[in-house]
Structures are given as structure tokens and as C-alpha cells.
Design brief:
single chain; mainly beta; Tachylectin-2, Chain A; 7-stranded mixed sheet; 27 strands
Length: 376
Amino acid sequence: MRYRLSLTLCLPFLFLAPLRAQLPSWAIGPFTRPVNAPILRPNAQTLFDDPILGHPVRWQALHTFNPAAIVRHGKVYVLYRAEDDSGSMQIGMHTSRLGLAVSSDGLHFRSLPTPIFYPAPDAQQSREWPGGVEDPRIVQAPDGRYILTYTQWNRETYTIGVAVSRDLEHWTKYGPALGVSGPYAHLMYKSGGILTRLHRGHLVAARLHGRFWMYWGEIEIRLASSTDLIHWTPVESEPSKTPGHALVLLHDRAGHFDSGFPEVGPPPLLTRQGIVLLYNGKNGSGATSDTALDPGAYSVGEALFSASDPAHLQARIDQPVFFPQQPWERSGQYAAGTTFAEGLVRFHHRWFLYYGCADSFVSVATAPLRASSSHP
């Protein structure tokens, strides 16, 4: 079944008319929008004394988007990417820092006035300046620590950085997830989601076969494992023959919403039926694209991997489970439209999915809990 285009002549947008497909039993969803607007917007009035520049900057003046989320002390905390008004007016050419917002209902948020994570005169400055720190994902470790994966961007190259905190406000940076030496030292890579499971009602990093697991990458989605949640080793296709060639789990599909490429979304979830990975699919722009979506649009897809073998793909939904429809998702810095998901939490007996809108805003979608998404 396909989603069809419908033209609303009184509005300057093309809207998709969703024919809701029956989701497989393992999937999370269906998602709906509980509020009819973004939940976080830019704020040009907030200033931050930048430790590198040595003067105040309007740290979230232009865009606030691409959020991570975690539940702590009965509230939802969202870490979001904020872009200042420096640099040229191009995507990726401002400096990004991470803000923190808190909510008691998951819908209405209060933001801290200054960022809680940012480039600084530290060991990671050369990797994070002047582009900044971008696109976070966050999980809680079994010992209570918070593990942050994020993009380090210096406007020349990028890597997944890892940082650790006890309170979400004070962080220790550990540098690139795949290390600074060896076959992956010069690889450009981003988007890391650490496997989680439900434990006493909230999500915690999950061990399988004595290790933690992280799905990572854009263009192609791959897998890595770790014993400490900080240092990660990629799963390789033929480790004894071709070191440095990470095993590819997902790639683009012609004619589908992810015909451009897939990119890891929020931290995946270990369930009774397997590992559910929500990912962001970019539509292509040529003959192999999905004509029911705008060229270049980002939608949310889902794939199922085996709980006994995290590298084994069992199923993949052909249609997006969530896609750009509203004006704030289809206008802004990325006018092709994005519902770019990076944060998933279980809260108030529902799933809350936090996503970036057109690289400009943050919003939320919710879905009912299903028996299949409980822990194994």
C-alpha cells in the first residue's frame, strides 16, 4: 500500500494523505501529534559567555532541533541542538551547542538559559570547533550514569563523540567512539544509538552476550559493541581478512522513503520480538525516489533485528511510520521537510518520540504501548 499525494490549493504546501497501514506486531506506533506546533523554538534573547571566543553569543538564535530525550525523576529532559547566528547562512556553517529543557508532561518545556554541552578549550576542541556539537542521542547506563553520543563537527570532518554525566548538566568528554588510532581513526561517521531495554518502567542500556551494542552511521547503518559504553569496536564483515571494513546492516532502497539513505534514529529498543530500530530515511531525488514524498525529505522508518544476533536483520517496514506533514516540518532551514527522530522515551504509559522539524524546531509525537514492546 502506498501513501498518495493530495494537493490542497488554498495552502502553499503539498500534504501527504496517509493511508494508515497495519503495523507489524513488533513495531512501535502508530504515532500521532499531541500538540499542533513545535514544542521548542529558537530564542535570540538568551546569551552565553563562550569560553573559546571570550565574549557572549546568542547561542540559540537561529535554530533549535534534533533532540535527544531521557526520563529522570519523573520528568522528561530533552537535550537539543541549538545553532547561533555566527557563520554563513548555510546548513552546518553555524556553531552548534546543546541546550537542556525539562517537562513534567512531556509536551510543555522550560529551557535552561545557557547550554549544558558545548565546544570548549579542552582535548576535543580541534574536533568540535568551530562547527560545534550536534545531533545527540542519550541513554542511561545500568549504574545510573548518562551516556551521550553526539556529532563532533569542526567544519572539515566529523565523528561520533562520547560523553558521560551524572546530572545531565556536567559532562566529561571521552572523544571519538571508535578511537583515535587504528583503521577507523580517519573515518567520517555520525549518528550512534545505543541499545536499550525497559527496566522498571524506563529505558536503560542493555547488555547482550555480555556486551553493549550501538547501531551507528548514515548512508549505511552499521554495528559496534562495547564493555564500558565509552570505547566501541565495530562489527566487521570479514575481520580476519579486511580489518577496517565494518559490516553494513541497512542501506538505501530504490522506490522507498529511504531511497537516499538510512540514518540511525533514537536509541533502539530490545523487546520480546527482537531489537526495534527506529531510523531516519532520506528520500532520493531521482528516478529511484519515492514519488509520494518530496525529494530529500526525511521520514521515520523501523527495522527489526534479532535479539540473539544484533547484526541479523529480520524485517523492515516498507512505508514510513512518521513523515513531514505540518508546515513547521516542511519549512525552515531544510525546506524539503524533516521529522528527524533522535529521542524515544516511555512516559505516562505512552511512547514519546522527539524529533527535529526542518532543521529548525523540536516537536513530539506519541504512540500507545504495545505488549510486544515490553522487555524480553
